[in-house]
User: What shape does this take?
Amino acid sequence: MQTIISRLRQSASVKVFTIGILILLLLIPLGMVRGTIDDRDMIHQTARFDIQRTWGQSQLIAGPVLVLPYDIVHVDGRGERFVNRTEMYVLPGKLGIDASVVSEIRYRGIYKVPVYSARIRLHGQFAAIDTGDLGIDDANIHWADASIVVGVSDGRAIAETPNLELNGVTVAFVPGGQIVDGLPPQIQAPLREILKPDRAGDLAFDTVLNIKGSESLSFLPLGDTTHASIESTWPSPSFSGNYLPHTREVSDDGFRADWQVSSIGRSFPSQWTKASGAVPSTESAVFGVDLYLPISVYRLTLRAVTYGVLFVVLTFVSYFMFEVIAGLKLHPLQYLMVGMANVIFFLLLISLAEHIGFGWSYISSALASSGLVVGYSYSVLGQRGRAIIIGGVLFVLYCFLYMTLRAETYALLAGSIGLWAALAMIMYLTRRIDWYQRSVATDSDDGQKELFGS
Assistant: This one.
């Protein structure tokens, strides 16, 4: 029996099987670290939504749109007359958007969200109303009930009641709800007696919205020609949507961007009726700017944990090479200690990144974890040179992981090449080992033992 136990202890296959079991066991704490990161990210999202709820959400501004109620008259076979009331919608011929955005960072505990206060001026004109193309009789239009609406995705964040100036006449906006389908919730300026059939020529409009929001500000180019400009104190904008600015200036003090958009490529018309059942598809026309923050530390750390098994496997392989080539005897518990030190790296990474940023936390966590492993290796492996080899393996791994995380576009390529290189190195070092005898071939014995400090 003692002979069998001794042979099992000496067996390379048994040791490899044991190491495999240890690696599988270490997937449990790695999974727990991943769960911790998910929990912290959820808390961050809760804080983010709380700030947006109280300050203002991402804003989408759409409009103005002229709304003209009118009657559709039906006469049945018996000559009885039925009247249904519906609406006609008219978009401006020219639309100018001038936005001045003052940005800042709001905190909820250790979590931060970029917010802004914006002064948005909408100006331009509606061309003379032509109802003939839609088959509407001017006599059936309720001119006194006409209104102009402006879509604001989060109307709660409007700082003060805006006014609309239409052909020199000032009208206050009131809540409007969902008047025009396909647009964000709207505020409404009733025109009452301002708009009449004999005064239905070009309508010049001008209004200013003082509004708060967070993370992004977007617009819909509802004019036949739309010119928009945004100035902001935010130094790192990310221009989004289906139209990029044709000119932009970005500096450490902020940015300025200008858009010029035509209705040629737009997927909705300049006027339509509610009775037609048409709902403009406006999502494809949105453009604007995001207040960009560096990639979330939670996303980066989750990506790092994906490579956690690589750290454990390659460290274990290095230890196993010392056993096979240098003739050391290491206990599974010693492997487990080293594996846990590698797992601790990822927990330190997320806990420090929330306070000092990802870069510095990565360096600090790598030094702390590798310091544990190298110091322990010096004692367990018995020689300084062997501990230095372990430290070199960890240094290469940490550098490889950091470059992979930062090279987002080439992350998969870098990861694949790194794994290939690691496997190639292991295959090269073990190419002459007789795994049944756990001995090194004579012609490579001296070089490999010298490499591993034996």
Summary: The longest strand covers residues 59-75. The two ends are 32 Å apart (CA to CA).
